[in-house]
């Protein structure tokens, strides 16, 4: 499955070290103003090579719009976006062509297909997520313009470090998407030591959608939380997804967890803005756990494709903490789910209109 969404359908294609990656977006409403420059901001936020704390690969990530846009506006026909790969160093992967990196997708791709493109991880590389971020630029724009819905994210944990204070303004002002400006020096030293040691670390990303009206999502099989969880789990290296209080709910009492309401609005948001698979009008809050990068220069035991026991050492340009660059990817997946669900809600329930009483979010 390389296609995501029901009405706003995104199909991605391409490998890490192939000539290009791309996507086709089908079902996009007509009339959305979009230009190649609109993609630059979010693609730069996801890109490698900007700081010493992410991979040193330097991809230009310039989007070519091949179809579906006329005189700067979407036409309702399939939108094809293409990004040429410009910094592929396939030689870095020569040593592991026949080896299975522990913790990576090498062994499972080999078992499933009997063949794999080892250059840069091929299709299993997070290079593919570039196209999700590109497609979501359109979704984010539509959500803001049409419904005033904004999607933003931040890093909520790296290894054992958690933010001590919270300020959205700090998030875009440092290379970690970190909400506490006072901790940046600590993070820099932590990441420098980690990189020197040759090891990697996991991270937690939190994404929030503000302004989502009540009613988006479908009960039972198309639940908003279910689709968000699947969307986040489809991102490379994701090992856990929480909605609202998530796993912390286990230790809570019902009297604490339930979100009481008054005329002025809800009194808390433990549910993360979703009840019964449908948005409540509160902010939709999603946290995503990323595992540590598996490609390490620290030797590890594994097998090669001939069944020999080997010592795997991965050199090349890898992220020491994949969660850092994952913030815009999680935002993208949330925006894609929300746009798809908004279109589905409009299709079935567009005539229902505003239902009272509406509890302020
Ligand atoms: C933004 C991002 C960057 C990544 N960069 C690397 C990397 O440099 N090296 C690596 O081994 N894995 C990297 N990964 C993780 C692998 O793509 C992923 O672990 C692998 O495909 C196996 O899939 P799984 O971890 O989801 O099971 C990255 C993931 C993300 C989200």
From TrEMBL:
<dbReference type="GO" id="GO:0010181">
    <property type="term" value="F:FMN binding"/>
</dbReference>
<dbReference type="InterPro" id="IPR000453">
    <property type="entry name" value="Chorismate_synth"/>
</dbReference>
<keyword id="KW-0274">FAD</keyword>
<keyword id="KW-0288">FMN</keyword>
<feature type="binding site">
    <location>
        <begin position="236"/>
        <end position="237"/>
    </location>
    <ligand>
        <name>FMN</name>
    </ligand>
</feature>
<feature type="binding site">
    <location>
        <begin position="123"/>
        <end position="125"/>
    </location>
    <ligand>
        <name>FMN</name>
    </ligand>
</feature>
<keyword id="KW-0521">NADP</keyword>
<dbReference type="GO" id="GO:0004107">
    <property type="term" value="F:chorismate synthase activity"/>
</dbReference>
<keyword id="KW-0285">Flavoprotein</keyword>
<dbReference type="Pfam" id="PF01264">
    <property type="entry name" value="Chorismate_synt"/>
</dbReference>
<dbReference type="GO" id="GO:0005829">
    <property type="term" value="C:cytosol"/>
</dbReference>
<dbReference type="InterPro" id="IPR035904">
    <property type="entry name" value="Chorismate_synth_AroC_sf"/>
</dbReference>
<keyword id="KW-0456">Lyase</keyword>
<feature type="binding site">
    <location>
        <position position="276"/>
    </location>
    <ligand>
        <name>FMN</name>
    </ligand>
</feature>
<protein>
    <recommendedName>
        <fullName>Chorismate synthase</fullName>
        <ecNumber>4.2.3.5</ecNumber>
    </recommendedName>
</protein>
<dbReference type="GO" id="GO:0009073">
    <property type="term" value="P:aromatic amino acid family biosynthetic process"/>
</dbReference>
<dbReference type="InterPro" id="IPR020541">
    <property type="entry name" value="Chorismate_synthase_CS"/>
</dbReference>
<feature type="binding site">
    <location>
        <position position="317"/>
    </location>
    <ligand>
        <name>FMN</name>
    </ligand>
</feature>
<comment type="pathway">
    <text>Metabolic intermediate biosynthesis; chorismate biosynthesis; chorismate from D-erythrose 4-phosphate and phosphoenolpyruvate: step 7/7.</text>
</comment>
<feature type="binding site">
    <location>
        <position position="52"/>
    </location>
    <ligand>
        <name>NADP(+)</name>
    </ligand>
</feature>
<keyword id="KW-0057">Aromatic amino acid biosynthesis</keyword>
<comment type="subunit">
    <text>Homotetramer.</text>
</comment>
<dbReference type="GO" id="GO:0009423">
    <property type="term" value="P:chorismate biosynthetic process"/>
</dbReference>
<feature type="binding site">
    <location>
        <begin position="291"/>
        <end position="295"/>
    </location>
    <ligand>
        <name>FMN</name>
    </ligand>
</feature>
<comment type="function">
    <text>This reaction introduces a second double bond into the aromatic ring system.</text>
</comment>
<comment type="similarity">
    <text>Belongs to the chorismate synthase family.</text>
</comment>
<dbReference type="GO" id="GO:0008652">
    <property type="term" value="P:amino acid biosynthetic process"/>
</dbReference>
<feature type="binding site">
    <location>
        <position position="46"/>
    </location>
    <ligand>
        <name>NADP(+)</name>
    </ligand>
</feature>
<keyword id="KW-0028">Amino-acid biosynthesis</keyword>
